[in-house]
Amino acid sequence: MPNTVYVGLAVTSARAGASTMATVSNFAVTANVSNAAPTVTLTSPTAGQSWTAPATITLAADASDPEGRLSRVEFYAGAQLLFADNTASFGYSWSQAPAGTHTLKARAIDLDGGQAESSVSVTVRAPNSPPTVTLTSPTAGQSFTAGATITLAANASDPEGRMGRVDFLINGAVRGTSSSAPYSAPWSTSGTSAGTYTIAAVAYDADGLSTRSSEITVTVSAPTTTPPRHVSFVASSDHLGNVTRYELRIHQAGANTSTATPLATSDLGKPTPDAQGLIIVDRSSFFTALPSGSYLATVTAIGPGGSTQSQPPVAFVR
Ligand SMILES: [Ca+2]
Ligand SMILES: [Ca+2]
To answer: Which one of 22, 116, 223, 272 is at 20 to 30 Å from 282 when CA atoms are compared?
Structure first.
């Protein structure tokens, strides 16, 4: 409600000759003593938003005054005035925002001394650092037999405490992932070819940085089996009359031993059968020389009239 208040006394004077004429008048103004405060809402950022330093934070506010006498909107970080904007739309881009928790505030001020505030709390994190990682299992130079399950394990941590996951690489390819400490994953070597393998761990933090551990090498060897030593077979019924020698023939498992070409052969000669008609020949060096694998064995009796192969073939593993 407008009131008339006396706020001053104006005196003007004019020199006229030797005398001074003075005019005195009461000076009256009207002022709206029931000024309504402006309203303001900080629309950006939103409460709880976070950045990684150095951050650029966009501040924006909606503000108005019931009397339409808005003066400006001031933006603050804590007590620090960042910017005073006297033109809508009200905003400010705060660059190089330092790490820490900041109370960001918009203060609207009208031309009549009314004001209002709106604030949010946001976080600027320290610049991100990559995680650290050390492969703890297996250890360099360890040997395993194919079929064994090898435990892949690593110690990993992030300076910001924001670990993501650890990947385990075998020969550069991810073969296991662990997303929580203690970081480990099993590596089944069933079906793995014999040879050397490089192993490394890669730790990822939740903010996109990663670190690769140093690499180690382990050896995977073929399953160990004891090779056969002897060949034993029943002598041919033609042993005395028509057989000149016997031949041991080795085929890959699954081969047709009647038609396939043998992988290896060993001339057994013509040993003398025992009292039961059995012939036993030591061929340990021949079996030891075979590559690891699954095989079929037959013995063929050979003579001038032809040859006869033992049936059925005998399976063995080297
Ligand atoms: Ca006002
Ligand atoms: Ca980090």
So the answer is: 223
Residue 303: CB atoms within 10 A of its CB come to 16
C-alpha 208 to ligand 2 mean position (Å): 8
Whether 264 and 191 share a structural domain: no
Give distance in angstroms: CA of 277 to centre of ligand 2: 79
| Mean pLDDT within 282-309 | 91
Structural domain span for residue 266: 230-317
Angle formed at CA 202 by CA 201 and CA 208, multiple of 5 degrees: 170
Question: How many whole angstroms from 6 Cα to the centroid of ligand 1?
Answer: 22
Find the ligand nearest to 129 CA: 2
For the chain, what is the domain count? Answer: 3
**What is the percent of the chain with per-residue pLDDT over 70, rounded to a whole number?**
89
Computed over every residue of the chain, the mean pLDDT equals 89
**Binning pLDDT at 50, 70 and 90, where does residue 18 land?**
very low
Residue 116 lies in a domain: yes
End residue of a domain, out of 221, 238, 257: 221
* Residue 16 resides in a domain: no
